Amino acid sequence: MAAPAIEKLSLEEIPPPPAGTIFIDDLTGADDESAGTSATYPLKSAAFALHIFPDAPAYYLRRQSDSPFEPITASALKKAKKGAEGLAKRAKAAEELKLKKHADEAKRLEEASKIVIKPDPSLPVPKRIKIRAGTTTRETRVVIQGWVHRLRLQKGLVFLVLRDGTGFLQCVLSGDLANAYSTVTLTLESTVTIYGVIHSLPEGKSAPGNHEMAVDYYEIVGLAPGGDDAISNKVQESADPSILFDLRHLVLRGETMTGIFKVRAALLRSFRRVYEELGILEVTPPCMVQTQVEGGSTLFTFKYYGEDAYLTQSSQLYLETCLPALGDVFCVQESFRAERSHTRRHLSEYTHVEAELAFLTFEDLLSHIENFITRTIQYVLEDEEIAGIVEKLNPNFVPPKLPFRRMTYESALEWLNEHGIPNEEGEKFKFGDDIAEAAERKMTDELNEPILLTRFPVEIKSFYMKKCADDPRVTESVDVLMPNVGEIVGGSMRIYDLEELMKGYKREGIDPEPYYWFNDQRIYGTCPHGGYGLGTERILAWLCDRFTVRDCSLYPRFTGRCKP
Ligand code: 4AD
């Protein structure tokens, strides 16, 4: 220890700190190995200073941030020396512990590498199953392939939760299987082929499916990385959303996401089941089109062999042309909208469920829509596995009941004005105003039940919508609004008179020529008809209680995001 100790000095007596001085400030300093060598970044304690820099030429200390650094006093130096000795002892013990841990780990791995795991040829030939079939194949030897979803290593016992897309299965490895090198170095998301017998669980224990597999052998198919690249380090819930969207392919493996996409599949199954029961036929219209449906401002354009073309906004016009050929039709098709708004319910690409029905009235259409929604949800929840997922994601979900509340656009404006909810200009709503997302959501959340909002003004709706016979200012149009999400369905009766349709084009500034095939619908046997479009991600966000529709799309596309 080189620095000479000095007793307390007056201000004038403080000598300038020599080169190599260590600075200490117990108020603003930090005991960090990179600090101490300058007055700007002092250390916090003298003990740490002596521990890290035992041979410094001088130690300068200050007790208040506005007083100067002065040489350490003899008594403080003595105390610091003692403290430094303690720190050295602790550091040594920690180092020894670390070395021991390394040695133990090396020994464990060395021992583990001596263990050879082999299949036992005397065991019965296993039956190859998916996890879903586990309940019906208990007590027989089975083989399952999947991904390591969770892993817990205990002394002599390993609990591995396997995932294969059809479910989760707890697998228990014991004896050599638990201690083998491949097991102690196994990582999450590795793929394995695993052999054993599934037994039901004893009372008081819990695991997926109420059973677990006693493993007798396994093989690794693909070892996933550990350390910094381990999935648990790459995908963290607290990460920036844009990082999570970049890593969507890995995020999808989480239980919330897999749950949502199972519900989504059940929803699509149920849509089709209801349509099948109603005798409505599925068709597949094109995505590449040369006509608009819902306004030019949200069209995605591209060059199609030198001509201008768009990605479809809605398959409605094509569905209308199918009516004379196939009767009532539906489709499940991607729609594309170059939405400028960055909201939690707008995607640039979404799965659009659309139906078109011939020879019906507006009232028939409204009752079809409410029935279609309630029956679809009923079928979704009839599946026990799916009902369990919905319960987990949205414990307060109440299936909708018939009939839905009916509300006209004009009475919605009255409601909004009575409740002090302003229009986009911050003023009272007046006839002709669009009910923007925020106002619509406030009203829907407040009423807290499905709403059929009808009779929107001609000017704020599309060119093809039929006017109401009793009031030509408004259309036979409907939006279905759901709490937390707002609009999930948009539909209407269609103009089926050619002349009136021509007026609609004119009003919207659309050239009718490219629509010749749509117009022919009104020439070759016209009929009253109507239909609607439902946003799959929106109804899913409502059903699974997601804050944003982005959670409900496999690889969501929205402003600025078209990858992965
Ligand atoms: O109200 P929209 O624009 O109606 C139509 O496209 C009609 N041509 C449909 C028809 O009658 N066949 O859209 C229908 C539904 C909306 O209620 C909403 O659920 C969904 O499609 N939708 C969107 N979903 C996600 N992102 C977007 N950008 C959406 N735009 C509409």
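^ 4AD complex. Residues 293-294, 314, 316, 337, 339, 346-347, 350, 352, 354, 487-491, 531-535, 537-538, 549 surround 4AD (CB under 6 Å). Residues 321 and 517 are 8 Å apart (CA to CA).
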